[in-house]
Every structure is written in structure tokens, then in C-alpha cells.
Amino acid sequence: MTYHPSPEYDVVGVGFGPSNLALAIALDDCTRQQRVSCRSLFVERQPHFKWHGGMLLPGSSMQISFLKDLVSLRDPTSPFTFINYLHKSGRLLDFTNCKTFYPSRIEFNDYLRWAAGQFSSLVEYGETVVAVEPVGSGQSVVALRVSTRTEDGAERVHIARNLVVAVGGVPHVPAGFRAIAGDPRVVHTSAYLESPITAALNGEAPRIAVVGGGQSAAEVTLDLSERFPNAHVDLIFRGHALKPSDSSPFVNEIFNPEYTDYFHSREESQRGAIIRSFRNTNYAVVDPELLDQLYRMTYQQRVSGTRKLALHPRSEIVGAEAGPEGIALELLNKDEDVRHRATYDAIVLATGYERSPFPAFLDPISRYVEGSGLDRDYRVQTSPAFRPRVYLQGCSETSHGLSDTLLSVLPMRAQEIMASLVATSAKQRGPEQDPQLVERVYS
């Protein structure tokens, strides 16, 4: 059989968003500071680095301090800090004059792109992982065959001693919309700015529905009102009212790295209770300043007698149908048990994301997994015969806490995974590489 061997890597990272970017920085720091290297490769399905491109709205700001960047809380002297990015960009003094800890989302995305650009030689963009399969030696699994597909349909294979998965969430589309999800008049916030939705809003007074009661829903509602001053926007959500997010200092301590230790050490029932008690930090809540903007807008409409923005609380969408006149929604007021029907030119789904605890491409190695939880260092628990280590980033909220899907713990999580990888890879390599490994991978 003819094959074209690729290099063998100590670790292959699946996805190259902020989580694996932070890991790349941690591995680079280890090489520079401790002279210990870990041969790594990252594969990313997007054609270039992009962080929430669909929601880089003009005027939108970060909700966490710039000090919670990719590395500062772990090593403020690192060349990859947000402050060094400002310095290299010639804007450090100008940013200081802004008197804020919260840069715009557009600027923070530019910071992430700047950092990612320094690792371009380690990243294969435009590659989607389709399967991760075991490579055996005797009775043991000693490596992983990572199969990918490029944008032009070509198939590639990468050999990995270890794997770090950080693929992010998948846009959640409510069941009532799945039958019409392909309609260009229906868009999830993840693709809001990149969608052709504006083509559906070329009428004199378009009608738009925003579905959801969280931060993204509020941001899109304001953005639509500014982009289309004559539009009629309905904000539809199930709660009794739009609620403020709790970012007070004592509550914010749940996002500190040491809280992860506490959370992981609790019993499963205790973890669930903790998550429920702090849901108002992250789920179905809106930044208080943004709430004030929305309220002032609705109040001014009362003053002027015009009503272009309407809020529909306690409302559940029980039917959605696409037709030539628009998208018809059937709404149920849960309190009054009253239904009404409305037709819209466009629908924006601000309905969040789904995160799989074990992505489908890992199915070929699932028989080696023992237990449903992750070790403290984010490693999947596997049988003794399975030597590779598989780490999961951003999908372990139930075992590591609410901060797992956020930016707050990126530096320390990357440090923990890096330390585990470096200690493991030296043992895995041994004095010599198995000369038959590559042939087995391709056979």
C-alpha cells in the first residue's frame, strides 16, 4: 500500500479558537523558558482565525476585563498579553485614555488574531476532523490516527500521541425552527453579521423577530433598530422579564482558577446545585447597561407615540412556517394561555449553543473510555491499555464549573494541560520512535 507519512506529533489540537490558542502559547512558553518542547499541530475547520465573527457588532464591548486575556493571569510578563498587543499596535497610551477595562469586541478579536498569527506554522486551516481512530501495538493503543478533510475534499492523516479537543459550541436551533432552518430569512446570532438577512429587509418597514432573552438577543435587537430605523422589531422570550447579569465582585470569584479546584472536588449533586445558583452570571441574562439602553428606547417610543420595538415576555413559539409573505410564527402566552400569529420578514435566533461532552469524531475510541467525567487536568478517563491522553476544553461545565466555556480560565487551564502533556510526551517518545508506527497508521 502506498502512503505518504506525515510527522508524528506529541499532540494534535482539534480547533484553534481561544482555548487551543492559549495552549499553543503555554507550550511556546515552556519551550522558551524550560527548553522542553512538545511537537504540536492544530487543525481548524475555518479558513482563517475568527472568533465569533457573526457578533462583532459596532460598539459592543467585552464583558470581562482585558486582564483575562490569553496569558496575563498566568504570566503577565508574556509577550502575548493584551497590553503587549496594544504596545505593538502603537495604541497603549490611547487605550489608557479610554479609562476602561473592557475593550470593544472588535479590538479583542483583533488581539486574538494577532496572537494566532504568530503560530501560523503550527496550524492547518480549512481542515475538518472526521475521525480519531486508535493505533495499536500489541495489546495497547499507542497513538491516534486523526483523519481530516480539507476544503477541496482532500483527505489527510495526522499521527498524534495525544489529543486536545476544543471545538466550541454548535448553534442551538429550537425544534420548532429546524424544518425551516435552511431558509435565508432565518439566521442564528453566530452568523448574524455574515448572513444574507439584509436582503430580506429591503422593504419600507420590515418586521423582524428576535428570539431569546439573553445578551446576544439584546445586542442584536439594538443593532437592528439602529441599522433599520423603520423596522418593527419584536423581542420574544420565555421569561417574565429581561434579567440583569450578576457581575458583582464576590460572585465573580466563582470564575477564579482556584474555584475550579473546589467545584471539581464536589459530588455531582452539589455541582448541579452550584451551577443552578449561579446561572444568572451567564445564562439568559443581559448586561445592566444594555438593559438601560433598551428600556430608554422603549420609553422614548411611548413619549413619541411610535412603537417600533416591542417586547413579548412569557411567550413560547409553538409553530413556525415559511411562506412567500414571510415567516409566520405562532406564539403562546404561557400565563394567559392565549395564542396569536404574526408574520415576519426575518427571524434572528439568539438561542445559544449546544456543547457535546464527547464529539462524534471521537466515537472510534469510545470503547476505551471509562467513566463519564474528566480528571482535574481535563483528561478523559480511559482504560490502562489506552496510552494516548485526550483532553477536552470548553465542554466540561458539569465537572469543572461555569467558567469552563468562558475566557476567564484560559491561561490556567492551558498551563495545566501543558504540564500534563509535557510530562507524558517524554515518556511516550522513549529512546527511539517505533519504526513500524507510521506503517500501521496507514495500513
Structure description:
The longest helix is centred in the C-terminal third of the chain and has 20 residues. A five-stranded parallel beta sheet has the order 4-3-2-8-21. A five-stranded parallel beta sheet has the order 10-17-11-12-13. Helix 1 packs across helix 11. A hairpin with a 2-residue loop joins strand 14 and strand 15. The protein is globular, with a radius of gyration of 24 Å. With 443 residues, it is α/β, with parallel strands linked by helices. It has two domains: 250 residues, FAD/NAD(P)-binding domain; 144 residues, FAD/NAD(P)-binding domain (3-Layer(bba) Sandwich). It starts with 7 loop residues before the first strand and ends with a helix. The chain contains twelve helices and 21 strands.
Which descriptors would you attach to this protein?
single chain; 21 strands; FAD/NAD(P)-binding domain; disordered C terminus; 2 domains; disordered N terminus; five-stranded parallel β-sheet; alpha/beta
Task: Give the SSE map.
Layout: E1 8-9, E2 11-14, H1 18-34, E3 40-44, H2 82-89, H3 92-97, H4 105-117, E4 123-125, E5 127-137, E6 140-150, E7 155-160, E8 163-165, E9 170-171, E10 186-188, E11 207-211, H5 215-227, E12 232-236, H6 249-252, H7 257-264, H8 268-277, H9 288-304, E13 309-312, E14 315-323, E15 326-333, E16 338-344, E17 346-349, E18 353-354, E19 369-374, E20 380-382, E21 390-392, H10 397-400, H11 410-429, H12 437-442
Parallel strand pairs: 1-7, 2-3, 2-8, 3-4, 8-21, 10-17, 11-12, 11-17, 12-13
Antiparallel strand pairs: 5-6, 6-7, 9-18, 14-15, 15-16, 19-20
Helix pairs in contact: 1-11, 5-9
